[in-house]
Amino acid sequence: MEEMEEQGLPQKKKSGFVPGLLVGILITAAVFLILFFALGKKVRMAADETETKERTIGLSEEAISKITALEGLIELNYLGEIDPEAEENGLYKGLVESLNDPYSEYYTAEEYEDNFTRVTKQYYGIGATLTQDPDTNLVSVVYVYPDTPAERAGLKVGDILFSVDGIEGSSVTLDEYVDQIRGEAGSSIHVVVVREGVDEDLEVDITREEITLPTVQSEMLDDDIGYLYISNFAANTAEEFEEAVEDLTKQGMKAMILDVRYNPGGILSSVVQILDDILPRGTVVYTEDKYGKRTDEVSDDEHVMHLPIAVLINENSASASEILAGAIRDYDYGTLIGTTTYGKGVVQKTFALNDGSAVKLTIEEYFTPDGENINGKGIAPDIELEYEFLGGDEDEYDYSLDNQVQKAVEVLKEQL
User: If both were cysteines, with which of 49, 116, 321, 364 could 347 make a disulfide (CB 3.0 to 4.6 Å apart)?
Assistant: First the structure.
């Protein structure tokens, strides 16, 4: 099976290249002209290994005439400058946006290169994981990596990054905000921070550094309970997971907490490999494409964990995180604790194009081992528990002050 990537929670799409109604008309119609050019072009599409079907793609003469008229009107009357490159990219983006799928997206060459950086997790930045509230658009910190500029600057989980170099987080998409934070090594950004319980905004300058982010953090808690936090499923995550498990096992781990709260997903093969390290022989997830072709991802019995397991989930656990939680639930191999997950039950694949650009398309939906597709529904925990920080305003985050972690410890101790 070809490698498939899931690139996290959906963000708001960028706007087109010309304001107003003209963009909507031009994008949805003109892009077919650019991409297919000839009327009635036949495209053969494989339905499965033995069957094909034909689909006629093309524009009517009326549509071509209307596109020509619109382009002429814009050229003659539009007050602003017309950027040919932005115009062309707008057409390509419009074609993909017409799918009305929050996970499908067209990338320019520059955007695709940046996307590759996100997958490899190496960049010049500050070392913090951010999230954007879907209602207020405010950007807040959900994780600060150790020994990074963010930690040295005093950023804390829960801090709202109100603005970076004068740009407010609520005015742009999360991807655009992250791009603003990243930059040349040694350069600095000016950040305005809003912190709960502090009356005045905090202002701090943070110097960018080369950051290689780990995706797995581990620690041995009391009672020989190993704790592993997986921030996302990247190319190296399974290897990091195996190294962390080996280290905790040497320390005498008797039970394990897997924390995938705020984990937006990642590479399918990565979570499959981790499940192969945990579960007995059998299907851990399967996918089906538009033609009904089913592909099973399986675990063998070479590595099987015989430990009590608790999985921490929340509303920001998505995609590959839900695959992990769903498989462990269906095999009755652990207890899910927290709140219902995001509900992303589809898989994307990124197709690179010859000019360096790319398109990411939703190509399959996935099902848990018991045949459930959780898209739009999410996975409900076995133990419903909203997050609560048990410390005071002056206390730093600690596992002992995380009510969901402590609930997991309580459940696992009963199984030891």
Answer: 364
Where do the structural domains in the chain lie, given as residue ranges? 21-104, 122-212, 216-415
- In angstroms, the CA 374 to CA 378 distance is 5
The two structure tokens encoding residue 30 = 């003109």
Question: Which residue is catalytic, options 104, 163, 317, 344?
Answer: 344
Backbone angles phi, psi at 287, to 5 degrees: -120, 155
Residue 250 appears among annotated catalytic residues = no
Catalytic pick among 330, 357, 360, 402: 330
For 54, the 3-state DSSP assignment is: strand
* CA end-to-end distance (rounded Å), the chain: 39
283: β partners: 298
CA distances from 415 to 225, 306, 328 (A): 11, 12, 16
Angle (nearest 5°) at CA 200 between 198 and 205: 100
**Cβ-based neighbours of 269, under 8 Å, separated by 6 or more:** 3
Find the mean pLDDT for residues 386-406.
90
For residue 92, the 8-state DSSP code is H
Let me know if domain 216-415 sits in CATH 3.90.226.10: yes
- One-letter amino acid at 57 equals I
CB 285 within 8 A of CB 366: yes
Retrieve residue 191's tokens: 């950040």
Find all residues with CB under 8 Å of 96, minimum gap 6, and list them.
104, 105, 106, 359, 361
E strands in 126-221: 128-132, 139-144, 160-164, 167-168, 188-194, 202-207, 209-212, 216-221
For residue 119, what pLDDT is reported?
Answer: 56
At 334 the pLDDT is 97
Q: What secondary structure letter does DSSP report for 382?
A: S
- Computed over its alpha carbons, how large is the radius of gyration of the chain? 24
* 51: Cβ contacts below 8 Å, ≥ 6 apart: none
Examine the residue annotation and report whether 165 is marked as an active-site residue of this protein: no
Q: What class is the 122-212 domain?
A: mainly beta
Q: For residue 153, give Cα distances in angstroms to 149, 165, 271.
A: 6, 16, 33
pTM: 0.71
More confident residue, 212 or 118: 212
Give the three-class secondary structure for 322: helix
pLDDT score of 335 more than 80: yes
Distance separating alpha carbons of residues 289 and 194, to the nearest angstrom: 45
Known active-site residue 330:
yes
Which of 319, 321, 357, 402 is catalytic? The answer is: 319
